Amino acid sequence: MRAMIPIAGSVVLSEVAEPTPADHEVVVAVEAYSVNRGETFLLESPPMGWRPGKDIAGAVVQEAASGVGPARGQRVVGHPESGGWAERVAVPTDRLAVLPDDVPARVAAALPLAGLTALRLTRVVAPLAGERVLLTGASGGVGHYFTELAAAQGAEVSAVVGSESRGTQLLRLGTRAVLTDIEQADRDYDVVIESVGGDVFNAAWRRLATRGLFGLDGAGRAAPDRARLLRLDRRDQRNVAEVPVFRRPRRCRRRPRHARAPGVPGPPAPRDRQHPRLAPDARRTESPAR
C-alpha cells in the first residue's frame, strides 16, 4: 500500500507493508487525515520506523480478531498512535468512534487530537463559569474547540490570534474578545492558556491574576527556559500547570501558605481555588518545566 514516510524534514509517498493488526485492532481504509503541529516537529528528527498520522477517518475493512469494536464497512473516526497518513492503518478499538452518516470524513479527521486536547484543558482548569480566560495561539484547532467548550460553560474568553480574519469563527463560537496582539489584553485573568512561548509567554504571565492558573499547552517552539519559569513561580506565587495531551497534569504547585505569627491562623484559600484547579493526587514539583 502507499503511505507518507518521513524524509529530510518532509514526507514522500512510498510503498510500505500492509498493517498487521493486533487482536484488539481494526484496519481502517483512510478517507481523510489531519496534520498536527507535533507531527511536523517530529518530521525534523523522526524516530526509527515512525510514520506520521494520528487523526484519521474512514471505513473499517478488517474487524478486530477479538470480536470487539466496529464491524466491517462501518465509518469511523480514529486516533492511532502513528501511521495514519496512509491508505490503511491499524487502530485500537478503544481509540475509535463510529461516525454518523451526516459527518464528512474530512471534517471528522480534524477532531481527535485537537478536540480531545481542548476537552482535557477544560477539565484541568474547571470550573469555568464566570472565569476570565486568556487564550494565546487561539486560531488553531485546539483554540476553536476550547473556545466553544469554555464559552458554553460560562467562561469569558479573550482569544489572541495573528489577524482579525483568523478570529471570525472564534467570535461565532462565543469568545468575548479577539485580540491581534497580546499587549492588547488587560490584566488579572483567572486562567491563561499559553501555547506560543517566547515573548508571548512572558506577556501572558504578567496578565495572570494572583492565585490564577497558568496552563502550558503544546510546548511551543520558543518555550520558556526552566530557570526563568522558576523565578516567575517563586516570585509571583501563582499556580502553574503543564498540560500534556491526554495525561493528568504532571507538574503543578500550590501557592505557599501565608506567613503568619505563631498561633494566628492564616486566611482560608478562596473557595474556587480549593478543588478542581489542581487535582489532589497530582504530583507537585518545584517547577512545571524540569
Could you walk me through the main structural features you see in this protein, from its secondary elements to its overall organization?
The chain folds into two domains: 2-110, Alpha-Beta Complex (Quinone Oxidoreductase, Chain A, domain 1); 113-261, Rossmann fold, CATH 3.40.50.720. The strands form three sheets. A seven-stranded mixed beta sheet has the order 10-9-8-11-12-13-14, sandwiched between helices. A five-stranded antiparallel beta sheet has the order 6-3-4-5-7. A two-stranded antiparallel sheet has the order 1-2. The radius of gyration is 21 Å and the shape is elongated. Helix 5 (168-173) links the parallel strand 9 and strand 10 (177-179). The protein is of the alpha/beta class and 290 residues long. The protein has helices at residues 37-42, 105-108, 112-124, 141-152, 168-173, 198-206, 226-236, and strands at residues 2-7, 10-15, 25-33, 56-62, 75-78, 88-92, 96-98, 132-135, 156-160, 177-179, 189-194, 208-216, 239-242, 252-253. The two termini are 42 Å apart.
Descriptors:
single chain, 290 residues, alpha/beta, Quinone Oxidoreductase, Chain A, domain 1, Rossmann fold, seven-stranded mixed β-sheet, five-stranded antiparallel β-sheet
Indicate the structural class: alpha/beta
- Give the full name of the CATH homologous superfamily of the largest domain: NAD(P)-binding Rossmann-like Domain
Largest sheet, strands/sense/barrel:
7 strands, mixed
The total domain count is 2
Q: Mean pLDDT, as a whole number?
A: 81
Return residue spans where pLDDT drops below 50 for at least 5 consecutive residues.
Answer: 225-237, 242-290
Strand content: 25-35%
CATH topology of the largest domain: Rossmann fold
- Element-level helix/strand string: EEEHEEEEHHEHEHEEHEHEE
Question: At CATH's second level, what is the architecture of the largest domain?
Answer: 3-Layer(aba) Sandwich
Tertiary shape: elongated
Number of strands: 14
The proportion of residues forming helix, as a percent range, comes to 10-25%
* CA(first)-CA(last) distance: 42 Å
Query: What order do the strands of the largest sheet run in, or round the barrel if closed?
Result: 10-9-8-11-12-13-14
Total helical segments? 7
What is the rounded Rg?
Answer: 21 Å
CATH class of the largest domain, please?
A: Alpha Beta
